[in-house]
Design goal:
The chain is α+β, with helices and mostly antiparallel strands. Helices cover 47% and strands 18% of the residues. InterPro entries: DUF1840.
Length: 108
């Protein structure tokens, strides 16, 4: 199922329900049928999401160890897609909503 986040100051952001639930949980909200992140909550929401992204990047770097691209005896591989890439459209929406003093809604 797709969840659509709406904000008057940005284009809609659509994502799968499991990702939406994860991201909304990071910022301290529950993904119900309808919800809102008010402009007063945006500073804390952005801070929490940015902290989660930094933590995720650290974990990926620790798990992956040294990236062996082009080294003899190592198969080439890509770095896994992390939270930073998955969360970027949502984080961008939150930042713009904060700048424009608007709310972020879903389920409307």
């Amino acid at each position: 199922m797709l969840i659509t986040f709406k904000c008057r100051s940005t284009p809609d952001v659509m994502m799968l329900e499991n990702l939406a639930q994860y991201l909304v949980g990071i910022i301290g909200k529950h993904l119900g049928q309808r919800g809102v992140i008010t402009h007063d909550e945006l500073d804390e929401a952005i801070r929490r999401l940015e902290e989660a992204i930094v933590f995720d990047k650290k974990e990926i770097a620790e798990k992956d160890g040294h990236f062996h691209e082009g080294e003899e005896g190592h198969e080439p591989h890509e770095l896994p897609i992390g939270l930073a890439q998955r969360a970027y459209p949502f984080l961008d929406m939150l930042r713009t909503a904060k700048r424009e003093n608007t709310d972020v809604l879903w389920g409307v």
